[in-house]
Amino acid sequence: MEQFPEQASTNWLMSTFIFTVGAVAVLLVVVGLVMVDMGLVRRRNVLDTTVQKIGAAMVGGLGTLLIGYPIWMWQFNSAFGAPQPLWQAVKDWWIGGTFTTTASRYIDPTVLPEADVLQIFLVFFVTFTMATMALVHTGVVERIKPVPLYAMSFVMGAIISPLVGYLCWGSLSPLTLRGTHDFDGIFPLYITAGTFALVLAWRVGPRLGVFRPHPSGIKPASHNVAFVGIGVLLILFALPFITIGSGFIFADVGFFGISFTESGIGLVIINLFSGILGGAVMGLIVAYRRREASWALMGPIAGVVMGGTLFDISTSWVCLLVGALGPLVSLGTAALLRKARIDDPKVVPLALGPGVVGALLCGFLEWGTRTGGYLGLEGEYAPGVAEITPWWQLAGVVTTMLVSGVPALLMCLVFEKLGGLRRTEQAEIIGLDVDQWGVTNFGDDLEPGLGPVLPPEPVAEPMASATRTHSTPSGLPD
């Protein structure tokens, strides 16, 4: 078989390494979300919450690995003139496809340049889906059944998240070529997860004791809020590597945002930290004003989501101010949810609210900035073929919410007919760790005792005295 050593050039190998780090860094976001939920759920639900979140992330990632990635690659096949572009993408990039099962040195660079990079980008998408489902699960912790959650996770990974990416995230996606702009995955990650979680939280219903007292006396009780701070720091540690992975690196040319906007690695990292610090300081102010520590811990995340569409094209002071708006938008979103009696104090306020407002704000702040296209292409696919506008940002938001929200509602209705989305009331009262796994995960010093949760093990009858052995002072049997 003919080999192509140019696929192993130093420049391409360096890009492969950078994207590998970005892909793996997304797993730290999943770890951070596990820590956040460990801190905020009831102590007797910690184990089940952790298992469900990791399980949902893995099943969603499997969906993307099996068949989801070709949907995103569809846009590139269309632009480069491949016949039957979607079907060709499926043949090339499903788990048994030509490009997923062939080492890069055996792939002709005239057919697929930078094969290693695009293969690693498949892993990037897998971990992206994992983070998306970890976010969705956070919106319905302590009450959703595992089977519906895992089934929805697979559909998210196989269809929904890649389809939003195809439409809104990529330099050759249909909406990007008309003026919709994204950079840090605001559409396929935050708005998608926020919309899905909103529908799911509405259909599953609130946790017992959230909006009105429950006869059992049960009410939501955080296990250890300090874990939230640890989780947030893990997420912040991962974000710079993920941010660099949200673009194109061309040797001797430069760094471009995923929408093929002119940018630079240093610029996006400065802008990222500007958004983080803006959200952090405003979160501190909100926390002390309201005497609610969670705002101080979540403020940086709200700032990142709020400015995520701007990091590749804006300036640091703009990202600082936009990031500072994040906790305020989150606060308003949370208030709306409480009025609607929808129990999700985390995902919709932090992901959907700031994601939507930040995306729309980008349309006004960067009105007229060139976006879309790809290096070396001409005509409708030429670099900078489109201009960012508020109405195309709105089109991206509406499209994303429909693509994620409608399937979420349909799947909820199906599972409601098949046996329900929610665990039994008794299971929620005694704790999901005991109900599902038969174990406790706490010292029970902060919550009312459950009493015996497992039958005692049988104790062997004592042996007759005549058969017992006795020891002499020397330690040997008589």
Automatic annotation (TrEMBL):
<dbReference type="Pfam" id="PF00909">
    <property type="entry name" value="Ammonium_transp"/>
</dbReference>
<dbReference type="InterPro" id="IPR029020">
    <property type="entry name" value="Ammonium/urea_transptr"/>
</dbReference>
<feature type="transmembrane region" description="Helical">
    <location>
        <begin position="12"/>
        <end position="34"/>
    </location>
</feature>
<feature type="transmembrane region" description="Helical">
    <location>
        <begin position="317"/>
        <end position="337"/>
    </location>
</feature>
<feature type="transmembrane region" description="Helical">
    <location>
        <begin position="293"/>
        <end position="311"/>
    </location>
</feature>
<feature type="transmembrane region" description="Helical">
    <location>
        <begin position="54"/>
        <end position="72"/>
    </location>
</feature>
<keyword id="KW-0472">Membrane</keyword>
<dbReference type="InterPro" id="IPR024041">
    <property type="entry name" value="NH4_transpt_AmtB-like_dom"/>
</dbReference>
<keyword id="KW-1133">Transmembrane helix</keyword>
<feature type="transmembrane region" description="Helical">
    <location>
        <begin position="225"/>
        <end position="251"/>
    </location>
</feature>
<feature type="transmembrane region" description="Helical">
    <location>
        <begin position="349"/>
        <end position="367"/>
    </location>
</feature>
<feature type="compositionally biased region" description="Polar residues">
    <location>
        <begin position="466"/>
        <end position="478"/>
    </location>
</feature>
<feature type="transmembrane region" description="Helical">
    <location>
        <begin position="263"/>
        <end position="286"/>
    </location>
</feature>
<feature type="transmembrane region" description="Helical">
    <location>
        <begin position="187"/>
        <end position="204"/>
    </location>
</feature>
<feature type="transmembrane region" description="Helical">
    <location>
        <begin position="391"/>
        <end position="415"/>
    </location>
</feature>
<protein>
    <submittedName>
        <fullName>Ammonia channel protein AmtB</fullName>
    </submittedName>
</protein>
<feature type="transmembrane region" description="Helical">
    <location>
        <begin position="117"/>
        <end position="136"/>
    </location>
</feature>
<dbReference type="GO" id="GO:0008519">
    <property type="term" value="F:ammonium channel activity"/>
</dbReference>
<feature type="domain" description="Ammonium transporter AmtB-like">
    <location>
        <begin position="20"/>
        <end position="440"/>
    </location>
</feature>
<keyword id="KW-0812">Transmembrane</keyword>
<dbReference type="GO" id="GO:0005886">
    <property type="term" value="C:plasma membrane"/>
</dbReference>
<dbReference type="GO" id="GO:0097272">
    <property type="term" value="P:ammonium homeostasis"/>
</dbReference>
<feature type="transmembrane region" description="Helical">
    <location>
        <begin position="148"/>
        <end position="167"/>
    </location>
</feature>
<feature type="region of interest" description="Disordered">
    <location>
        <begin position="448"/>
        <end position="478"/>
    </location>
</feature>
